[in-house]
Amino acid sequence: MKFEVTILGSSSATPVYNRNPTAQLLNCNEKFYLIDCGEGTQQQLIRYGIKASKIDYVFISHLHGDHYFGLIGLLSSMHLNGRVKPIVIFGPQPLLEILELQFKYSETVIRYPIEFTAVEADTSVKIFENNDLTVETIILNHRIPCTGYQFKQKKRLRKLIIDKLEEDNIPHEYFPLLKRGIDLNLPDGRVFLNKDYTLDSDAPKSYCYCSDTLADGTYMEQIKGCTMLYHESTFLQEMLDRANQTHHTTALQAGQIAAEAGVEKLLIGHFSSRYKVLQPLLEEALSVFEHTELAIEGNTYTI
Amino acid sequence: MKFEVTILGSSSATPVYNRNPTAQLLNCNEKFYLIDCGEGTQQQLIRYGIKASKIDYVFISHLHGDHYFGLIGLLSSMHLNGRVKPIVIFGPQPLLEILELQFKYSETVIRYPIEFTAVEADTSVKIFENNDLTVETIILNHRIPCTGYQFKQKKRLRKLIIDKLEEDNIPHEYFPLLKRGIDLNLPDGRVFLNKDYTLDSDAPKSYCYCSDTLADGTYMEQIKGCTMLYHESTFLQEMLDRANQTHHTTALQAGQIAAEAGVEKLLIGHFSSRYKVLQPLLEEALSVFEHTELAIEGNTYTI
Description:
The structure is a homodimer.
Chain A: E1 3-9, E2 23-28, E3 31-37, H1 41-47, E4 55-59, H2 71-80, E5 87-91, H3 94-105, E6 114-118, E7 126-129, E8 133-139, E9 147-153, E10 159-160, H4 162-167, H5 175-179, E11 184-185, E12 191-192, H6 194-197, E13 198-199, E14 206-210, H7 220-223, E15 228-232, H8 240-245, H9 251-261, E16 265-269, H10 279-286, E17 292-294, E18 300-302
Parallel strand pairs in A: 3-4, 4-5, 5-6, 14-15, 15-16, 16-17
Antiparallel strand pairs in A: 1-2, 1-18, 2-3, 7-8, 8-9, 9-14, 10-13, 11-12
Protein backbone atom coordinates (compact mmCIF):
# COMPACT_ATOMS: atom_id res chain seq x y z
CA MET A 1 0.00 0.00 0.00
CA LYS A 2 1.38 3.35 -1.05
CA PHE A 3 2.18 5.65 1.86
CA GLU A 4 4.24 8.64 0.83
CA VAL A 5 4.40 12.40 1.15
CA THR A 6 5.18 14.96 -1.56
CA ILE A 7 6.50 18.35 -0.48
CA LEU A 8 4.75 21.29 -2.15
CA GLY A 9 6.30 24.01 0.01
CA SER A 10 8.99 24.16 2.66
CA SER A 11 9.50 27.83 3.36
CA SER A 12 8.61 29.53 6.60
CA ALA A 13 6.77 32.84 6.90
CA THR A 14 7.63 34.43 3.54
CA PRO A 15 8.27 32.74 0.20
CA VAL A 16 11.78 32.91 -1.18
CA TYR A 17 12.96 32.00 -4.63
CA ASN A 18 12.33 28.28 -5.22
CA ARG A 19 10.73 27.79 -1.82
CA ASN A 20 7.01 28.20 -1.36
CA PRO A 21 5.21 28.36 1.97
CA THR A 22 4.24 25.12 3.68
CA ALA A 23 2.11 22.50 1.94
CA GLN A 24 2.42 18.72 1.71
CA LEU A 25 0.44 16.05 -0.05
CA LEU A 26 0.09 12.68 1.65
CA ASN A 27 -0.80 9.73 -0.55
CA CYS A 28 -2.16 6.78 1.42
CA ASN A 29 -3.40 4.00 -0.83
CA GLU A 30 -4.13 6.48 -3.63
CA LYS A 31 -6.25 8.68 -1.41
CA PHE A 32 -4.85 12.19 -1.10
CA TYR A 33 -4.57 14.28 2.06
CA LEU A 34 -3.37 17.88 1.77
CA ILE A 35 -1.51 19.06 4.86
CA ASP A 36 -1.39 22.84 5.15
CA CYS A 37 -1.84 25.03 2.12
CA GLY A 38 0.37 28.12 1.86
CA GLU A 39 -0.07 30.69 -0.88
CA GLY A 40 0.64 29.25 -4.32
CA THR A 41 -0.14 25.63 -3.41
CA GLN A 42 -2.46 25.27 -6.40
CA GLN A 43 0.31 26.54 -8.66
CA GLN A 44 2.70 24.02 -7.09
CA LEU A 45 0.24 21.19 -7.80
CA ILE A 46 0.17 22.28 -11.45
CA ARG A 47 3.94 22.56 -11.50
CA TYR A 48 4.36 18.98 -10.30
CA GLY A 49 1.59 17.57 -12.48
CA ILE A 50 -0.73 16.67 -9.59
CA LYS A 51 -4.46 16.99 -10.20
CA ALA A 52 -6.08 19.00 -7.41
CA SER A 53 -9.26 17.00 -8.01
CA LYS A 54 -7.59 14.00 -6.36
CA ILE A 55 -7.50 15.76 -2.99
CA ASP A 56 -10.40 14.78 -0.74
CA TYR A 57 -9.06 15.80 2.67
CA VAL A 58 -7.36 18.94 3.93
CA PHE A 59 -5.67 19.43 7.31
CA ILE A 60 -4.70 22.97 8.32
CA SER A 61 -2.42 23.31 11.32
CA HIS A 62 -2.94 26.97 12.23
CA LEU A 63 -3.91 30.39 10.96
CA HIS A 64 -0.55 31.91 10.20
CA GLY A 65 -0.82 32.80 6.54
CA ASP A 66 2.12 30.72 5.34
CA HIS A 67 0.06 27.65 6.29
CA TYR A 68 -3.33 28.48 4.80
CA PHE A 69 -3.44 31.52 2.45
CA GLY A 70 -3.53 29.16 -0.55
CA LEU A 71 -6.66 27.32 0.57
CA ILE A 72 -9.28 29.82 -0.63
CA GLY A 73 -7.71 29.85 -4.10
CA LEU A 74 -7.52 26.07 -4.27
CA LEU A 75 -11.16 25.67 -3.20
CA SER A 76 -12.24 28.35 -5.69
CA SER A 77 -10.42 26.65 -8.54
CA MET A 78 -11.95 23.28 -7.62
CA HIS A 79 -15.34 25.00 -7.90
CA LEU A 80 -14.50 26.60 -11.25
CA ASN A 81 -13.16 23.30 -12.54
CA GLY A 82 -16.50 21.62 -11.88
CA ARG A 83 -15.85 19.61 -8.72
CA VAL A 84 -18.99 18.03 -7.29
CA LYS A 85 -17.63 15.54 -4.75
CA PRO A 86 -17.27 16.79 -1.18
CA ILE A 87 -14.06 17.98 0.38
CA VAL A 88 -13.33 17.34 4.04
CA ILE A 89 -11.44 20.08 5.86
CA PHE A 90 -9.99 20.05 9.37
CA GLY A 91 -8.61 23.23 10.87
CA PRO A 92 -9.05 25.92 13.49
CA GLN A 93 -12.65 27.10 13.87
CA PRO A 94 -12.15 30.62 12.41
CA LEU A 95 -10.91 29.13 9.13
CA LEU A 96 -14.49 28.51 8.07
CA GLU A 97 -15.45 32.12 8.83
CA ILE A 98 -12.54 33.36 6.71
CA LEU A 99 -13.46 31.11 3.77
CA GLU A 100 -17.15 31.97 3.95
CA LEU A 101 -16.48 35.70 4.04
CA GLN A 102 -14.49 35.48 0.84
CA PHE A 103 -17.06 33.30 -0.90
CA LYS A 104 -19.74 35.76 0.17
CA TYR A 105 -18.12 38.80 -1.41
CA SER A 106 -17.21 37.01 -4.62
CA GLU A 107 -20.84 35.82 -4.72
CA THR A 108 -19.56 32.28 -5.12
CA VAL A 109 -21.92 29.43 -4.28
CA ILE A 110 -19.56 26.47 -4.13
CA ARG A 111 -20.89 23.58 -6.22
CA TYR A 112 -19.50 20.87 -3.94
CA PRO A 113 -20.00 20.32 -0.20
CA ILE A 114 -17.31 21.56 2.16
CA GLU A 115 -17.40 19.32 5.23
CA PHE A 116 -15.59 21.36 7.82
CA THR A 117 -14.56 20.09 11.25
CA ALA A 118 -12.97 22.46 13.75
CA VAL A 119 -9.99 21.05 15.62
CA GLU A 120 -9.12 22.03 19.15
CA ALA A 121 -5.45 22.80 19.67
CA ASP A 122 -5.31 21.83 23.35
CA THR A 123 -6.40 18.18 23.23
CA SER A 124 -5.15 15.19 21.27
CA VAL A 125 -8.07 13.30 19.78
CA LYS A 126 -8.86 11.06 16.86
CA ILE A 127 -10.55 13.25 14.28
CA PHE A 128 -10.74 10.97 11.26
CA GLU A 129 -10.83 7.33 10.27
CA ASN A 130 -11.35 5.38 7.07
CA ASN A 131 -10.34 1.93 5.81
CA ASP A 132 -6.74 2.97 5.38
CA LEU A 133 -5.79 5.14 8.31
CA THR A 134 -6.70 7.11 11.39
CA VAL A 135 -5.78 10.73 12.04
CA GLU A 136 -5.13 12.09 15.53
CA THR A 137 -4.26 15.62 16.48
CA ILE A 138 -0.94 16.51 18.08
CA ILE A 139 -0.78 19.33 20.61
CA LEU A 140 1.88 21.82 19.54
CA ASN A 141 3.11 24.94 21.27
CA HIS A 142 3.13 27.94 18.97
CA ARG A 143 2.25 31.62 19.31
CA ILE A 144 -1.33 30.98 18.23
CA PRO A 145 -3.35 27.73 18.52
CA CYS A 146 -1.55 25.14 16.39
CA THR A 147 -2.29 21.49 15.73
CA GLY A 148 -0.05 18.74 14.41
CA TYR A 149 -1.47 15.60 12.84
CA GLN A 150 -0.60 11.93 13.18
CA PHE A 151 -1.59 9.79 10.18
CA LYS A 152 -1.48 6.13 11.17
CA GLN A 153 -2.14 3.24 8.82
CA LYS A 154 -4.57 0.64 10.04
CA LYS A 155 -3.36 -2.84 10.83
CA ARG A 156 -3.71 -4.77 7.58
CA LEU A 157 -5.16 -8.27 7.20
CA ARG A 158 -2.79 -11.25 7.53
CA LYS A 159 -0.85 -12.24 4.42
CA LEU A 160 -1.73 -15.57 2.78
CA ILE A 161 1.01 -18.13 2.05
CA ILE A 162 -0.32 -18.99 -1.42
CA ASP A 163 2.05 -21.91 -2.12
CA LYS A 164 0.99 -23.70 1.06
CA LEU A 165 -2.73 -23.06 0.41
CA GLU A 166 -2.47 -24.52 -3.08
CA GLU A 167 -0.42 -27.48 -1.86
CA ASP A 168 -3.21 -28.44 0.55
CA ASN A 169 -6.00 -27.62 -1.92
CA ILE A 170 -7.72 -25.18 0.40
CA PRO A 171 -10.72 -23.62 -1.38
CA HIS A 172 -10.60 -19.89 -2.21
CA GLU A 173 -13.76 -19.14 -0.26
CA TYR A 174 -11.83 -19.68 2.99
CA PHE A 175 -9.13 -17.11 2.13
CA PRO A 176 -10.98 -14.08 3.58
CA LEU A 177 -11.44 -15.97 6.87
CA LEU A 178 -7.76 -16.95 7.01
CA LYS A 179 -6.76 -13.32 6.30
CA ARG A 180 -8.70 -12.37 9.41
CA GLY A 181 -6.71 -14.87 11.53
CA ILE A 182 -9.43 -17.51 11.86
CA ASP A 183 -8.64 -21.23 12.25
CA LEU A 184 -10.83 -23.42 10.02
CA ASN A 185 -12.74 -26.38 11.50
CA LEU A 186 -14.53 -27.81 8.50
CA PRO A 187 -17.79 -29.92 8.72
CA ASP A 188 -15.89 -32.93 7.34
CA GLY A 189 -13.63 -32.84 10.38
CA ARG A 190 -10.56 -31.33 8.70
CA VAL A 191 -8.76 -28.60 10.65
CA PHE A 192 -6.62 -25.87 9.10
CA LEU A 193 -4.69 -23.78 11.57
CA ASN A 194 -4.32 -20.14 10.63
CA LYS A 195 -0.67 -20.02 11.65
CA ASP A 196 0.18 -22.65 9.00
CA TYR A 197 -1.28 -20.61 6.12
CA THR A 198 -0.73 -16.96 6.93
CA LEU A 199 1.91 -14.50 8.01
CA ASP A 200 1.44 -11.41 10.11
CA SER A 201 0.97 -8.27 8.03
CA ASP A 202 3.52 -5.48 8.01
CA ALA A 203 3.44 -3.26 11.07
CA PRO A 204 1.25 -0.19 10.41
CA LYS A 205 3.25 2.85 9.48
CA SER A 206 2.66 6.35 10.73
CA TYR A 207 3.48 9.88 9.66
CA CYS A 208 3.57 12.67 12.22
CA TYR A 209 3.37 16.24 11.02
CA CYS A 210 4.65 18.83 13.48
CA SER A 211 4.40 22.25 11.94
CA ASP A 212 5.30 25.36 13.86
CA THR A 213 6.15 24.64 17.48
CA LEU A 214 8.49 25.36 20.32
CA ALA A 215 10.66 22.27 20.77
CA ASP A 216 9.39 21.67 24.28
CA GLY A 217 8.71 17.97 23.75
CA THR A 218 5.24 18.14 25.30
CA TYR A 219 4.06 16.21 22.24
CA MET A 220 6.65 13.44 22.73
CA GLU A 221 4.08 10.74 23.63
CA GLN A 222 2.13 11.39 20.45
CA ILE A 223 5.06 11.04 18.07
CA LYS A 224 6.89 8.21 19.88
CA GLY A 225 8.06 5.43 17.56
CA CYS A 226 6.40 6.81 14.43
CA THR A 227 7.76 5.76 11.06
CA MET A 228 8.38 9.24 9.75
CA LEU A 229 8.35 12.49 11.66
CA TYR A 230 8.08 15.74 9.80
CA HIS A 231 9.31 18.43 12.17
CA GLU A 232 9.76 22.10 11.49
CA SER A 233 13.39 23.28 11.66
CA THR A 234 13.13 26.97 11.07
CA PHE A 235 16.56 27.93 12.39
CA LEU A 236 20.10 26.74 13.03
CA GLN A 237 21.01 26.22 16.69
CA GLU A 238 22.96 29.50 16.70
CA MET A 239 19.54 31.17 16.43
CA LEU A 240 18.13 29.35 19.48
CA ASP A 241 17.07 32.55 21.22
CA ARG A 242 15.15 33.62 18.13
CA ALA A 243 13.59 30.16 17.91
CA ASN A 244 12.41 30.34 21.51
CA GLN A 245 11.14 33.86 21.11
CA THR A 246 9.10 33.01 17.99
CA HIS A 247 8.04 29.54 19.21
CA HIS A 248 10.01 27.69 16.57
CA THR A 249 12.54 24.84 16.53
CA THR A 250 16.18 24.59 15.50
CA ALA A 251 17.49 21.79 13.28
CA LEU A 252 19.51 20.44 16.21
CA GLN A 253 16.41 20.32 18.40
CA ALA A 254 14.44 18.56 15.66
CA GLY A 255 17.16 15.91 15.48
CA GLN A 256 17.15 15.55 19.27
CA ILE A 257 13.38 15.16 19.34
CA ALA A 258 13.51 12.50 16.61
CA ALA A 259 16.18 10.60 18.54
CA GLU A 260 14.32 10.82 21.84
CA ALA A 261 11.04 9.78 20.21
CA GLY A 262 12.72 6.79 18.57
CA VAL A 263 11.27 7.51 15.15
CA GLU A 264 12.58 5.74 12.08
CA LYS A 265 13.01 8.76 9.82
CA LEU A 266 13.04 12.52 10.21
CA LEU A 267 12.07 15.05 7.56
CA ILE A 268 12.90 18.67 8.34
CA GLY A 269 11.35 21.73 6.73
CA HIS A 270 9.84 25.22 7.28
CA PHE A 271 13.19 26.81 6.59
CA SER A 272 13.73 30.46 7.40
CA SER A 273 14.15 32.70 4.37
CA ARG A 274 17.59 33.62 5.70
CA TYR A 275 18.93 30.22 4.57
CA LYS A 276 19.59 30.11 0.86
CA VAL A 277 21.64 26.94 1.30
CA LEU A 278 20.01 24.24 3.42
CA GLN A 279 22.94 21.87 3.91
CA PRO A 280 23.96 23.33 7.30
CA LEU A 281 20.44 22.67 8.64
CA LEU A 282 20.64 19.08 7.43
CA GLU A 283 24.08 18.57 8.92
CA GLU A 284 23.00 19.93 12.27
CA ALA A 285 20.07 17.51 12.49
CA LEU A 286 22.22 14.63 11.18
CA SER A 287 24.73 15.25 13.96
CA VAL A 288 22.20 13.92 16.47
CA PHE A 289 19.88 11.82 14.28
CA GLU A 290 21.23 9.79 11.40
CA HIS A 291 18.08 9.23 9.35
CA THR A 292 17.28 12.83 8.51
CA GLU A 293 16.34 14.30 5.16
CA LEU A 294 15.51 17.81 3.96
CA ALA A 295 11.92 18.45 2.81
CA ILE A 296 12.66 19.55 -0.77
CA GLU A 297 9.82 20.82 -2.95
CA GLY A 298 8.72 18.39 -5.60
CA ASN A 299 10.35 15.44 -3.82
CA THR A 300 8.29 12.46 -2.67
CA TYR A 301 9.32 10.59 0.46
CA THR A 302 8.22 7.03 1.15
CA ILE A 303 7.04 6.64 4.71
CA MET B 1 9.80 60.12 -17.09
CA LYS B 2 9.38 56.37 -16.89
CA PHE B 3 5.84 55.19 -17.47
CA GLU B 4 5.61 51.45 -18.01
CA VAL B 5 3.72 48.40 -16.84
CA THR B 6 5.10 44.96 -15.97
CA ILE B 7 2.77 41.97 -16.20
CA LEU B 8 2.89 39.68 -13.15
CA GLY B 9 -0.10 37.55 -14.08
CA SER B 10 -2.38 37.26 -17.09
CA SER B 11 -4.57 34.22 -16.37
CA SER B 12 -8.27 34.40 -15.73
CA ALA B 13 -10.08 32.58 -12.93
CA THR B 14 -7.68 29.68 -12.33
CA PRO B 15 -3.92 29.59 -12.74
CA VAL B 16 -2.50 27.42 -15.48
CA TYR B 17 1.08 26.42 -16.02
CA ASN B 18 3.15 29.54 -16.70
CA ARG B 19 0.20 31.87 -16.24
CA ASN B 20 -0.65 33.31 -12.87
CA PRO B 21 -3.83 35.16 -11.98
CA THR B 22 -4.02 38.87 -12.69
CA ALA B 23 -1.49 41.33 -11.32
CA GLN B 24 0.37 44.23 -12.90
CA LEU B 25 2.96 46.65 -11.67
CA LEU B 26 2.86 50.19 -13.00
CA ASN B 27 6.04 52.22 -12.74
CA CYS B 28 5.46 55.95 -13.04
CA ASN B 29 8.58 57.98 -12.40
CA GLU B 30 10.02 55.22 -10.17
CA LYS B 31 6.92 55.11 -7.99
CA PHE B 32 5.22 51.72 -8.05
CA TYR B 33 1.50 51.03 -8.31
CA LEU B 34 0.28 47.44 -8.02
CA ILE B 35 -2.89 46.79 -10.01
CA ASP B 36 -4.77 43.71 -8.82
CA CYS B 37 -2.99 41.00 -6.89
CA GLY B 38 -3.94 37.40 -7.69
CA GLU B 39 -2.60 34.46 -5.68
CA GLY B 40 1.15 34.10 -6.04
CA THR B 41 1.84 37.75 -6.87
CA GLN B 42 4.52 37.96 -4.19
CA GLN B 43 6.21 34.89 -5.69
CA GLN B 44 6.03 36.52 -9.12
CA LEU B 45 7.72 39.65 -7.77
CA ILE B 46 10.53 37.47 -6.43
CA ARG B 47 10.72 35.59 -9.73
CA TYR B 48 11.19 38.81 -11.68
CA GLY B 49 13.56 40.37 -9.17
CA ILE B 50 11.21 43.17 -8.11
CA LYS B 51 11.37 44.30 -4.49
CA ALA B 52 7.89 44.34 -2.95
CA SER B 53 9.07 47.13 -0.67
CA LYS B 54 8.99 49.50 -3.66
CA ILE B 55 5.21 49.23 -3.93
CA ASP B 56 3.42 52.11 -2.20
CA TYR B 57 -0.01 51.93 -3.87
CA VAL B 58 -2.38 49.06 -4.56
CA PHE B 59 -5.51 49.17 -6.72
CA ILE B 60 -7.89 46.18 -6.55
CA SER B 61 -10.58 46.00 -9.21
CA HIS B 62 -13.00 43.55 -7.62
CA LEU B 63 -13.40 40.67 -5.20
CA HIS B 64 -13.15 37.68 -7.48
CA GLY B 65 -10.25 35.72 -6.06
CA ASP B 66 -8.09 35.76 -9.15
CA HIS B 67 -7.76 39.51 -8.66
CA TYR B 68 -6.98 39.76 -4.93
CA PHE B 69 -6.20 36.43 -3.16
CA GLY B 70 -2.49 37.33 -3.21
CA LEU B 71 -2.90 40.61 -1.35
CA ILE B 72 -3.09 39.24 2.22
CA GLY B 73 0.13 37.26 1.66
CA LEU B 74 1.93 40.24 0.14
CA LEU B 75 0.89 42.53 3.02
CA SER B 76 1.91 39.87 5.57
CA SER B 77 5.33 39.46 3.99
CA MET B 78 5.83 43.23 3.92
CA HIS B 79 5.13 43.18 7.67
CA LEU B 80 7.51 40.28 8.30
CA ASN B 81 10.18 41.95 6.20
CA GLY B 82 10.09 45.03 8.43
CA ARG B 83 8.14 47.55 6.38
CA VAL B 84 7.33 50.72 8.28
CA LYS B 85 6.21 53.13 5.55
CA PRO B 86 2.48 53.25 4.82
CA ILE B 87 0.80 51.45 1.98
CA VAL B 88 -2.18 53.00 0.22
CA ILE B 89 -4.88 50.57 -0.93
CA PHE B 90 -7.91 51.25 -3.09
CA GLY B 91 -10.54 48.56 -3.53
CA PRO B 92 -14.11 47.49 -2.80
CA GLN B 93 -15.18 48.21 0.78
CA PRO B 94 -15.34 44.55 1.95
CA LEU B 95 -11.68 44.04 1.10
CA LEU B 96 -10.70 45.72 4.35
CA GLU B 97 -12.98 43.41 6.34
CA ILE B 98 -11.41 40.36 4.67
CA LEU B 99 -7.88 41.56 5.38
CA GLU B 100 -8.65 42.51 8.98
CA LEU B 101 -10.28 39.15 9.72
CA GLN B 102 -7.17 37.31 8.60
CA PHE B 103 -4.83 39.59 10.54
CA LYS B 104 -7.04 39.11 13.61
CA TYR B 105 -6.81 35.32 13.63
CA SER B 106 -3.10 35.24 12.92
CA GLU B 107 -2.75 37.76 15.77
CA THR B 108 -0.77 39.98 13.44
CA VAL B 109 -0.47 43.65 14.32
CA ILE B 110 0.82 45.13 11.10
CA ARG B 111 3.83 47.35 11.74
CA TYR B 112 3.06 49.81 8.98
CA PRO B 113 -0.09 51.87 8.32
CA ILE B 114 -2.57 50.53 5.79
CA GLU B 115 -4.37 53.53 4.31
CA PHE B 116 -7.48 52.02 2.80
CA THR B 117 -9.94 53.85 0.59
CA ALA B 118 -13.10 52.13 -0.58
CA VAL B 119 -13.98 52.69 -4.22
CA GLU B 120 -17.53 52.78 -5.51
CA ALA B 121 -18.09 50.76 -8.66
CA ASP B 122 -20.96 52.84 -10.01
CA THR B 123 -19.35 56.26 -10.30
CA SER B 124 -16.25 57.50 -12.04
CA VAL B 125 -14.27 59.77 -9.75
CA LYS B 126 -10.73 60.91 -9.15
CA ILE B 127 -9.46 58.88 -6.22
CA PHE B 128 -5.78 59.74 -6.16
CA GLU B 129 -3.34 62.43 -7.17
CA ASN B 130 0.34 63.12 -6.63
CA ASN B 131 3.02 65.07 -8.48
CA ASP B 132 3.22 62.49 -11.25
CA LEU B 133 -0.30 61.37 -12.02
CA THR B 134 -3.97 61.24 -11.23
CA VAL B 135 -6.05 58.10 -10.90
CA GLU B 136 -9.71 57.97 -11.84
CA THR B 137 -12.02 55.00 -11.56
CA ILE B 138 -13.64 53.44 -14.62
CA ILE B 139 -17.13 51.96 -14.34
CA LEU B 140 -17.04 48.37 -15.58
CA ASN B 141 -19.87 45.89 -15.97
CA HIS B 142 -19.09 42.54 -14.34
CA ARG B 143 -21.04 40.02 -12.28
CA ILE B 144 -20.02 41.71 -9.04
CA PRO B 145 -19.02 45.36 -8.47
CA CYS B 146 -15.88 45.95 -10.52
CA THR B 147 -13.75 49.04 -11.03
CA GLY B 148 -11.23 49.87 -13.71
CA TYR B 149 -8.57 52.51 -13.21
CA GLN B 150 -7.24 55.29 -15.41
CA PHE B 151 -3.71 56.40 -14.58
CA LYS B 152 -2.99 59.73 -16.25
CA GLN B 153 0.31 61.55 -16.13
CA LYS B 154 0.14 65.19 -15.17
CA LYS B 155 1.01 67.83 -17.69
CA ARG B 156 4.74 68.42 -17.27
CA LEU B 157 6.46 71.82 -17.11
CA ARG B 158 7.60 73.38 -20.39
CA LYS B 159 10.99 72.28 -21.76
CA LEU B 160 13.79 74.84 -21.75
CA ILE B 161 15.76 75.50 -24.94
CA ILE B 162 19.12 75.57 -23.22
CA ASP B 163 21.21 76.73 -26.19
CA LYS B 164 19.01 79.77 -26.67
CA LEU B 165 19.02 80.60 -22.96
CA GLU B 166 22.83 80.47 -22.86
CA GLU B 167 23.16 82.48 -26.05
CA ASP B 168 21.15 85.33 -24.50
CA ASN B 169 22.80 84.96 -21.08
CA ILE B 170 19.54 84.50 -19.23
CA PRO B 171 20.29 83.88 -15.54
CA HIS B 172 19.47 80.43 -14.08
CA GLU B 173 17.15 81.87 -11.46
CA TYR B 174 14.61 82.63 -14.18
CA PHE B 175 14.47 79.06 -15.47
CA PRO B 176 11.70 77.86 -13.10
CA LEU B 177 9.54 80.77 -14.17
CA LEU B 178 10.10 80.05 -17.85
CA LYS B 179 9.26 76.39 -17.29
CA ARG B 180 5.91 77.51 -15.94
CA GLY B 181 5.19 79.48 -19.13
CA ILE B 182 5.84 82.95 -17.74
CA ASP B 183 7.12 85.83 -19.90
CA LEU B 184 9.88 87.80 -18.17
CA ASN B 185 9.66 91.59 -17.87
CA LEU B 186 12.85 92.51 -16.05
CA PRO B 187 13.29 95.71 -13.94
CA ASP B 188 15.93 96.90 -16.40
CA GLY B 189 13.32 96.90 -19.13
CA ARG B 190 14.45 93.79 -20.93
CA VAL B 191 11.67 91.42 -22.04
CA PHE B 192 12.07 87.69 -22.62
CA LEU B 193 9.10 86.00 -24.19
CA ASN B 194 8.45 82.50 -22.98
CA LYS B 195 7.77 81.17 -26.47
CA ASP B 196 11.34 82.04 -27.53
CA TYR B 197 12.97 79.99 -24.78
CA THR B 198 10.72 77.01 -24.13
CA LEU B 199 8.91 74.22 -25.91
CA ASP B 200 5.67 72.61 -24.90
CA SER B 201 6.18 69.48 -22.83
CA ASP B 202 5.19 66.05 -24.13
CA ALA B 203 1.47 65.34 -24.03
CA PRO B 204 0.58 63.51 -20.79
CA LYS B 205 0.26 59.79 -21.28
CA SER B 206 -2.42 57.63 -19.77
CA TYR B 207 -2.91 53.95 -18.98
CA CYS B 208 -6.41 52.55 -18.66
CA TYR B 209 -6.89 49.24 -16.90
CA CYS B 210 -10.13 47.44 -17.71
CA SER B 211 -10.23 44.17 -15.86
CA ASP B 212 -13.26 41.89 -16.00
CA THR B 213 -16.13 43.44 -17.90
CA LEU B 214 -18.82 42.88 -20.43
CA ALA B 215 -17.79 44.68 -23.63
CA ASP B 216 -20.76 47.01 -23.53
CA GLY B 217 -18.72 50.16 -24.11
CA THR B 218 -20.43 52.08 -21.31
CA TYR B 219 -16.92 53.07 -20.22
CA MET B 220 -15.97 54.41 -23.69
CA GLU B 221 -15.82 58.05 -22.57
CA GLN B 222 -13.38 57.20 -19.81
CA ILE B 223 -10.88 55.38 -22.00
CA LYS B 224 -11.15 57.57 -25.10
CA GLY B 225 -7.79 58.53 -26.59
CA CYS B 226 -5.69 56.96 -23.88
CA THR B 227 -2.11 56.03 -24.67
CA MET B 228 -2.38 52.41 -23.66
CA LEU B 229 -5.52 50.45 -22.92
CA TYR B 230 -5.26 47.19 -21.02
CA HIS B 231 -8.45 45.31 -21.73
CA GLU B 232 -9.40 41.81 -20.66
CA SER B 233 -9.83 39.36 -23.53
CA THR B 234 -10.90 36.20 -21.81
CA PHE B 235 -12.27 34.39 -24.85
CA LEU B 236 -12.11 34.10 -28.63
CA GLN B 237 -15.11 35.47 -30.53
CA GLU B 238 -16.40 31.92 -31.09
CA MET B 239 -17.11 31.91 -27.32
CA LEU B 240 -19.15 35.14 -27.46
CA ASP B 241 -22.16 33.58 -25.76
CA ARG B 242 -19.99 32.40 -22.90
CA ALA B 243 -18.40 35.85 -22.70
CA ASN B 244 -21.79 37.53 -22.45
CA GLN B 245 -23.01 35.02 -19.92
CA THR B 246 -19.98 35.46 -17.63
CA HIS B 247 -19.66 39.22 -18.24
CA HIS B 248 -16.37 38.94 -20.05
CA THR B 249 -14.94 40.19 -23.34
CA THR B 250 -13.65 38.47 -26.48
CA ALA B 251 -10.37 39.40 -28.14
CA LEU B 252 -12.28 40.72 -31.14
CA GLN B 253 -14.41 42.94 -28.92
CA ALA B 254 -11.32 44.25 -27.13
CA GLY B 255 -9.85 45.20 -30.49
CA GLN B 256 -13.08 46.89 -31.54
CA ILE B 257 -13.23 48.86 -28.31
CA ALA B 258 -9.62 50.00 -28.72
CA ALA B 259 -10.37 51.11 -32.29
CA GLU B 260 -13.55 52.95 -31.32
CA ALA B 261 -11.87 54.62 -28.35
CA GLY B 262 -8.99 55.75 -30.53
CA VAL B 263 -6.30 54.58 -28.16
CA GLU B 264 -2.69 54.36 -29.25
CA LYS B 265 -1.94 50.85 -28.03
CA LEU B 266 -3.91 47.88 -26.76
CA LEU B 267 -2.67 45.24 -24.34
CA ILE B 268 -4.88 42.17 -23.95
CA GLY B 269 -4.85 39.70 -21.05
CA HIS B 270 -6.94 37.68 -18.56
CA PHE B 271 -6.79 34.68 -20.84
CA SER B 272 -9.06 31.72 -20.19
CA SER B 273 -7.27 28.59 -19.03
CA ARG B 274 -8.63 26.83 -22.13
CA TYR B 275 -6.06 28.66 -24.29
CA LYS B 276 -2.64 27.11 -24.03
CA VAL B 277 -1.52 29.01 -27.12
CA LEU B 278 -2.35 32.71 -27.14
CA GLN B 279 -1.59 33.58 -30.77
CA PRO B 280 -5.23 33.17 -31.97
CA LEU B 281 -6.37 35.72 -29.36
CA LEU B 282 -3.73 38.15 -30.54
CA GLU B 283 -4.62 37.64 -34.19
CA GLU B 284 -8.29 38.20 -33.53
CA ALA B 285 -7.64 41.55 -31.83
CA LEU B 286 -5.08 42.51 -34.49
CA SER B 287 -7.69 41.94 -37.19
CA VAL B 288 -9.53 45.04 -35.98
CA PHE B 289 -6.82 46.98 -34.13
CA GLU B 290 -3.27 47.02 -35.41
CA HIS B 291 -1.38 48.09 -32.30
CA THR B 292 -2.22 45.16 -30.06
CA GLU B 293 0.10 43.13 -27.85
CA LEU B 294 -0.40 40.15 -25.55
CA ALA B 295 0.13 40.75 -21.83
CA ILE B 296 2.92 38.23 -21.23
CA GLU B 297 4.15 37.60 -17.69
CA GLY B 298 7.51 39.12 -16.96
CA ASN B 299 7.29 41.52 -19.91
CA THR B 300 7.39 45.28 -19.41
CA TYR B 301 5.45 47.51 -21.78
CA THR B 302 6.29 51.18 -22.25
CA ILE B 303 3.17 53.33 -22.18
